Amino acid sequence: MWKWIYRIVSVLFGFLFIAPIVWMLVVSIKKEGMKIVTLVDWFTPPYSFAVYDDILSGTKLSNWMFNSFFVAICVTLFTVAFAAMAGFVMSKLPFRYKSAMFFLVLSGLLIPGEAIIIPLYQVAKDMSLLNSYQGLIIPALASPVAVIVLKSFFDGVPNDLLESVQIDGGGTWRIFTQIMLPLNRPALASMAILTFIGSWNNFLWPFLSVTDDNLFTLPMGIPTLMSQYSEDYVKPMVVNTISSIPIILLFIIFERQIIKGVSLSGIKG
Amino acid sequence: MRMNKMRADVLALLFLLPFLAVYGLFTIWPMVKGVQMTFYKWTLIKKMKYVGWDNYSKMFHDQEVWAAIWHSAIFVILTTPTMIVLAILLAMIANRKSRLQKLYRSVFFLPSVLSVAVASYLGLFVFQPYNGFVNTLLHLIRLLPENREIFWLTELSLSWIALTLITLWWTVGFNFILYLSAMQDIPDEIVEAAKLDGASDSVIFWKITLPYLTPITKTIAMLQIISSFKVFLQIYIITGGGPLDKTRPIIQLIYQTGFRKNDLGYAATMSYMLFVILLVLSAIQYFINNRKGANA
Questions:
Q1: Could A138 and B22 be called an inter-chain contact, meaning their C-beta atoms sit closer than 8 Å?
Q2: pLDDT digit string (tens) for B211-240?
Q3: pTM of the entire structure?
Q4: Contact residues, chain B, for A82 at CB < 8 Å
Q5: Which residues of B touch A81 (CB under 8 A)?
Q6: What's the per-residue H, E or C state across chain B?
Q7: Among A34-48, A134-148, B80-94, B153-167, where is mean pLDDT lowest?
Q8: Where does the pLDDT of residue A267 fall: very low under 50, low under 70, confident under 90, or very high at 90 and above?
Q9: Mean pLDDT, rounded, of chain B
Q10: Contact status, residue B15 vs residue A85, Cβ threshold 8 Å
């Protein structure tokens, strides 16, 4: 009896989570202008891919998708690299002002990006960074969270190991790139995944700093397109589908790593 | 690592430099600059006029600001407990051995990879009257009579419900994964031993599973409260802050004040208020978590 209730509830939730996405896909291939009365009407032919052609050739959607991926990839690579370098010396090098440095980074955890977005706009404007890829990417490259998390993983690498490499004549850079980084690959991957998803969804900063529609990322571009399609379901769902397919494919390919990365972030968080 | 002091200082500086440069220029410096801006009438083309404490006294008497803060708080109150309950429920479903186990895990996490704009627009269309997914589904299963429609996004209480449901659907995946891995860390022997002693499933859940989930729940609750307080795009797209600005969150008001009303100084002042609120929330959370050294 309970077993069946359990199964039914499970299937129900599975349905509720996947249904909107399936609906999005189906509506996107529906022929435009068909009369819809019931749910069943959405799921019956005629189907057509004509709108896909219109959207891909008539809008800058593919351009924006490139921008989203380009910005997210750059932000991910540099953020993780910078955070790993900083986390490494804070974990393993004895230097002056180390505790002051740690405090400075730690206090960054308390500063939400949204709270400094207005002065950041003024700073970026003074540096002529508005309306440029540099402006989209550079301000996002310092992540105190990533520094703290990576430092705590680096703390787990035994000092004896590093010292034995040092005795063999290995320099600091070699220790960093050939021991610290490879040993902490899962932690680095976890930070990379979270940074990527954060950048992929970043809206407020691109929204304020970019006005040239060639530089839009998806979260900014999609609303400008959608506002032209009132009363229509098919075009918006085509836009949604095209925007989602690459990231869904990435998810399917890297699912194991992504899930592991997310669960790992909970350990030290 | 052992090395001479001078050398360590120089090396540390070199390794820290890329992070510090960006952090200093784009976090610390705006933080300082922002304080200055709150004392000015400051426009987009940087016409500045010193106004002393005017922005602050204006803010404390501004009904719109308090209303917007209240709306963000409503969103926190609606999303935080529901998020935790739903995430635990989904984790229980996906933790149960079955043929569909892996599929459930993928399906529950899938919406989390969608772009915030896609999730929001999908939500907007899912909750449309007449042809939207939810209403046509309710018609199909006869929960809603054919001749009636629910206007999810134009009625205030319903639009809060719709916003909450969309946000849960889109973001529960992360917390679900955290709970799932916490559940998988519960030693099998403990559960087996309890079963041998004749403990029922519900006893096992309340006495074993839930206590194991307490530390991660504290973390999730804190992160959820802060991120819900910073909500913007979902509401901006789905209700536009309406009906009648009654769902407009504080970030949207900051944006409109700065960039529509051309008043960056006042917008910066509101940002600092937001900062202080988030700081107080984190402090309360920190205090609760460390009360009995409970934070494992």
A1: yes
A2: 888 888 888 888 888 889 888 888 988 888
A3: 0.87
A4: 18-19, 22
A5: 18
A6: CCCCHHHHHHHHHHHHHHHHHHHHHHHHHHHHHHHHHCCEEECCCCCEEECCCHHHHHHHCCHHHHHHHHHHHHHHHHHHHHHHHHHHHHHHHHHCCCCCHHHHHHHHHHHHHCCHHHHHHHHHHHCCCCCCHHHHHHHHCCCCCCCCCCCCCCCHHHHHHHHHHHHHHHHHHHHHHHHHHHHHCCCHHHHHHHHHCCCCHHHHHHHHHHHHHHHHHHHHHHHHHHHHHCCCHHHHHHCCCCCCCCCCCHHHHHHHHHHHCCCHHHHHHHHHHHHHHHHHHHHHHHHHHCCCCCCC
A7: A34-48
A8: low
A9: 86
A10: yes
Residues of chain A positioned with their CB less than 8 A from the CB of B264? 118, 121-122
Count of other CB atoms within 10 angstroms of residue B242: 15
State the Cα–Cα distance between residues A173 and A178, nearest whole angstrom.
8
Distance from the B288 Cα atom to the nearest Cα atom in chain A, whole angstroms: 17
Reported as a single tens digit per residue, the pLDDT across A80-121 is: 999 999 999 999 888 888 888 888 888 887 777 888 888 899
User: Tell me, what's the pLDDT at B294?
Assistant: 46
The residue type found at B197 is: D
Which amino acid, one-letter code, is at A268?
K
Tell me which residue in A39, A82, A142 faces B26 most closely, judged by beta carbons: A142
Q: What one-letter code names the amino acid at B2?
A: R
Indicate yes or no: CB of B125 within 8 angstroms of CB of A94: no
* d(C-alpha B23, C-alpha A88), whole Å: 17
End-to-end alpha-carbon separation of chain B, Å? 29
Pairwise CA distance, residues A151 & A192, whole Å: 15
The pairing of strands B48-50 and B40-42 is antiparallel
For the record, the structure tokens of B186 come out as 């519960």
Tell the burial category of B100 from Cβ atoms under 10 Å away from its Cβ (0-12, 13-18, 19+): middle
Instruction: Give the separation between CA B215 and CA B211, rounded to whole angstroms.
Output: 8
**Which residues touch B9 (CB under 8 Å, ≥6 apart)?**
A95, A96
- pLDDT tier, A216 (very low <50, low <70, confident <90, very high otherwise): very high
User: In this structure, which amino acid lies at residue B246?
Assistant: K
Whole-complex ipTM: 0.86
